[in-house]
Amino acid sequence: DPEPEHSEAGSEALLPPEEDPWLGDEGSVPNAPETKTWEKFDQGAQNPLSPVFITEAGPIAFDAWLASGRASSPTESDVLDDASYCACLFTLALGRSSLLFSWDSEKRSFVKTVARLRTSGLSLELIECIDRLCLDCANSIKRLQSFADRAYSAASTPARVALARVVDGLVLALQSEISSRNHGVRSILQLQAIVQPVQSVLSYFRDLVGKLARQKSDEAMLSCLFQEAQSAEYRSVLLREATREVLRLVSQPWVDFVQEWLGFEAERGLVITKKGPGKGFVKVADRMWIDDQAYELEEPDFFLDEEKMPSFVPQDIAQALFETGRNLRFLREHHPEHPLSRQSVVALAKPPEIEWQFDWDSIKRLETKISDYQDALSHAIQGTLLEAEPDAPLPSSWSSGEPAYKFQFLGRSEAEIAANILASINQLNQPPKAVLKTDALTVLFQTRLYQKGEQQAEDNKRLPPHWSLVPLLSFGPAVDVQSRLVNQECMRLLFSSHDLRVHIDLLRQYFLMGNGILCSRLSHSLFDPDLETAERKAGVALLGESMGLRLGGRDSWPPASSELRLALMGVLSDSYESPSSRGAPMGCSRPVSASRSYSSDLPGDLSFAVRDLSPKEIDRCMDPDSIEALDFLQLSYKPPSPLRPIMTPVVLLKYDRIFKLLLRVLRMLYVVNQLFRDVPSGRSSRRRGTPQPSNASARFCIEARHFVRQIAAYFFDTGIAAPWRRFEDWLDTAEAEALGANSSNDTTNNDDGDLRLAEEKPNICSPGLLRDRQEQLLDDIMVGLMLRKRQLPVLKLLEETFTIILRFAKQVRTGAQAQTVENKLADKDAGETPEKLYAAFKKNVEVFITVCRGLGEKSATAAPTGKSSGDAYFMGSDGRRGPSPPESSIEQLLLRLDISGFYAKKA
């Protein structure tokens, strides 16, 4: 049956659900709240777009695409979950083996145990890139650890051990930084962000350590590290700061030795002495002196080994550093009670710590510390600072304020002992406390390794000192101040306590014949024929009070040692003139008596001695009429131990060579004066009724006397007196500075607190400078006396001329004994007449003057270039070596010898 119509009409009359008022909202689900973003606002009600790239579809879609084979390089690979793979990579980044990576000793590298392995959502190429990053990090750690392990050996050097210690700390700090960030990593990309900064640091230090390991010595290693630190200035802030810190740590053993050598710290281990081995840049060896006559002398001394000094240390600072330490050993050896010799007093003054300074603030702080140290130590030297006790201070735990130690078992009950044992067990059950390293390198990596770029850019705005100034600013102020203090005290003690001026004046009086009484006494004792002979004869008693060697008036020569003692007894002691009798200079605190009974009482045990001669020299000494007849006689002087660094063997050798020549000149003066008396003029011979001498004899006598006296005057006035006058002026200035420096301070502080060394004041003289100055003085004198090697031809001409005069004197003496001047000798000189000898003498004088004139012209042409004949030099008031004055001393000699051109006309 058909349905009734009312049913259709009723269904059509029904309202839609949203318009039906009888339908409520009880069953509807409210809309969930959502985050409003600008992206969704721009899209409106549109449906989200489908992913454009396959990687945006998620790891499942990416893996499906790789499995479909539509990739550019389809490769089959196994997939591992992210957590496991990240854990293996983390272990690898720490330099350790894991299930996926192991160490291959043959390849000396970590290798992957499963070749084709990746994680979901990442391609094999990306995984291999991450693997290479972690493998490089692990291999770098392994190489660094291998170097550190090899460095700890018996044959290793201090700097190499210090570098190994730095490498250990570096690896440990980076491993700690990686481990501290392990827990929050959930993806490979997060792992890459953590490992990449560590890998860049490790790769840099791997290459750096490789360069340093190839260096052969500590000095080369430090020099190379300094250059690398300078190059790191243009890298990131982290690498720049880390390389500076590595330089500071690796150079610490060298810096420690510098502080010990300067006296800032007590010496560790064996003390450096001249009898032991050297250390660092200080070498102990025999100092060998070889003069221009090939004489060799040896003595142990300290030497600066420049090859063991790092190249970054300026040469002047290196020299000042070495000289300061050597002078400090002088104080410790001869003045152990001096404040600078006592480490306890130096420690009270709080010496500055020598270390690298890379910024201006630390340099200013260092200058302030140095200024305070100099003031405190100056007060200690003056006696105004409380001195430290000789005994070392007791540890703080031993002080009376600390409670007494309480025993845990002795005198305790069983209950107390049981409680202590339980407390000990409970303490041992606690987890060990982490020992955190707080060294600067670890702190640097903790704060800078993952620092943001904005903070690094802020650090780059600071302008540090230039690297060429860093060593000078780091080490120069401390070395300079300590050098001034030590040199000042050494010079003060040399002048005040060791009578330096007395010994220098003694050398001038005797070796340089600056004492007129000595010259007179010595001439009479050696040459006067009127004195009683000191020669022993059988059956003849020696009764004369004044005895001499009577050279020229005897047949036997050389004299015996007993004759020398009798003839020269009292010559030195009776002629000594102490500085106090002439107005003692500053510093002579102990006046020496002007009259002495024995030569041994003279300073330095001055006495006559017999020179060591070769067989040829001995043969020449056997002839009493030769110029070498007195070459066996020398002065023996032994400087006291504190003066040996100044009165070195080479200095005494030069004094001896000068004395040897002056003794010959003294003999020639006596001979020509005796000739002037023995060869009378024509008028005096007629008055006396003696035979009249020949014209040649008279002219020979007059010209020989003029020649010898002018040579002697030139030697004593120009060759010796002029350089000695300059030396004494310089010595007076140095003595005044040394003795008056205690009342003044060489450093001043400005308003900003900066240290300013008084550059306008002259530098404090040092014992080394005084020694060099005295050597230059002797070199100047030897140039004036024609004793230099290049002047040997001129000296040879002079000796030949002296020999001709002696041969003539022998003829005159023999003729006087025979009552005729023209008496012919029966020996080898029988064929020599006064005319022949005069002709030979005149010819030699002409040649001598011609050669001297050539030297004078040569020195005049060389004067503009700063050189002169004989390489003569002089010292200015500041102690610096300079060229000789423009005036030529040879010209003065020519004026003395031939002012009228008499010999030049004949030449």
TrEMBL record:
Alphabetized Pfam families for the sequence: GCP_C_terminal, GCP_N_terminal
Gene Ontology CC: one annotated term: spindle pole
GO molecular function (one): microtubule minus-end binding
Keywords: Cytoplasm, Cytoskeleton, Microtubule
Domain Gamma tubulin complex component protein N-terminal per the UniProt entry, residue ranges: 89-495
Region (Disordered): 1-38, 859-888
Domain of life (superkingdom): Eukaryota
Ranges where the Gamma tubulin complex component C-terminal domain occurs: 500-903
Localization (cell): Cytoplasm, Cytoskeleton, Microtubule organizing center
GO biological process, one term: cytoplasmic microtubule organization
Similarity comment: Belongs to the TUBGCP family.
Protein name: Spindle pole body component
Source organism of this protein record: Lasiosphaeria miniovina
